[in-house]
Amino acid sequence: MFAASAASPRNFSRAGEVGCALKPLAVYSHMFGVTTSDDYRPVAWMGRYPVDVTTMLVGLHVALAIITCILVAVGAGSVLDYLQFDSARVLYLGQVWRIATYALVHAPSVLLWFAVEMYMLFVFGREVERFIGQRAYIALYVALLIAPTAVLTAWGFWQRSALAGSPALHFGVFVAFATIYPRVELFLRITAKWFALILAAIYTLQLLAYHAWTDLAVLWTSMAIAFLFVEWRGAGPELVWWNNLKSRLQPRPKFHVVQKTSARRVVEPDDVYASVDPILDKISKSGIGSLTASERRQLDRARNRLLKESQ
Predict the structure, then answer these.
(1) pLDDT of residue 306 exceeding 60
(2) What distances in angstroms separate CA 180 from CA 53, 79, 234, 236, 287, one per listed residue?
(3) Which of 178-182, 204-208, 249-253 has the lowest mean pLDDT?
(4) How many domains would you assign to the chain?
(5) Is 230 within a domain?
(6) What is the pTM (predicted TM-score) of this model?
(7) Do 120 and 223 belong together in one domain?
(8) Looking at residue 191, what is its pLDDT?
(9) In a domain, 256, yes or no
């Protein structure tokens, strides 16, 4: 949220706003509560408060954690064994449900970290959902849920592996947030991308120290899926190598139709404000350095047009 001084008027002219956007500046924004996808709609409402997919996921995980504690307390914790992922039981006994149900098991011994995990899912997951839309968010969550166990299933042909809990799954959601908003400042003014890199490095070193190769594979699979999913949808930072790879993978036309070249007049939209609003929103989210060359030219044209109209 932007902090405006008391002396600053609230009704700035849009021409001045566009002009200022072209200068180097630091935009400090937490990005919470910004809806940018047309696909985002609350699933339900509780009074005045919207209930989105992320809120429902948090409620589901919390409810299952409570049920797990009760089962362990009454001595029925063995039921959870049917939910944990086990590559041998998936491959040789056909218990394929374990590929997804492992994330529903939350051991009572790690409830403190589970609370932190749910807080991060609630805060950052909702921003990812708002940005990419509900359908894409559900697809991302399913990919983060299934991809690690798919890797471990293939790994199981050489070495039996097991998995329970959802830390890597929800860390992947945070990586998706950091990919969309890499320059957003979090705790101690550290940007999201550096927070993600620091946590990933610490987690990796911990797993390397104990030779936890399967957990390391799960971690890096989750991070790769989150990053590539956001990049594939064009919501992350521009990467030259990634754009080149996508252009190579996309089908190419067998022939090109060469049209007669003629001078074309650039048709400017009637509403200049509406044409630059998405660009200004992008600057507030990721900084002016995130603009592409075409977006900078469009912003410059809008600025010149507004300056001409004001003369």
Answers:
(1) yes
(2) 18, 39, 9, 5, 12
(3) 249-253
(4) 2
(5) yes
(6) 0.67
(7) yes
(8) 92
(9) no
146: its two tokens: 């299934």
Give 187's DSSP letter: G
Burial class of 48 by CB neighbour count within 10 A (0 to 12, 13 to 18, 19+): exposed
* 118: containing domain: 31-249
Residue 260 included in any domain: no
Residues in a beta bridge with 162: 86
Residue 164 DSSP class? -
The answer to whether residues 202 and 280 belong to one domain is no
- DSSP class of residue 185? B
Cα angle for residues 175, 179, 183 (degrees, 5° grid): 115
> Based on the domain organization, do 301 and 172 belong to the same domain?
no
Q: Of 8-12, 186-190, 257-261, which range is least confident?
A: 8-12
As a whole number of angstroms, the distance between CA 175 and CA 257 comes to 42
Residue 37 lies in a domain: yes
Question: Is there a contact between 134 and 223 (Cβ–Cβ < 8 Å)?
Answer: no
CA 22 from chain centre, in angstroms, equals 27
Output the average pLDDT for the chain: 79
Whole-angstrom Cα distance, residue 89 to residue 93? 5
Residue 220 carries which side chain, given as an amino acid letter? W
Same domain, 51 and 144: yes
Q: How confident is the model at residue 17 (pLDDT cuts 50, 70, 90)?
A: very low
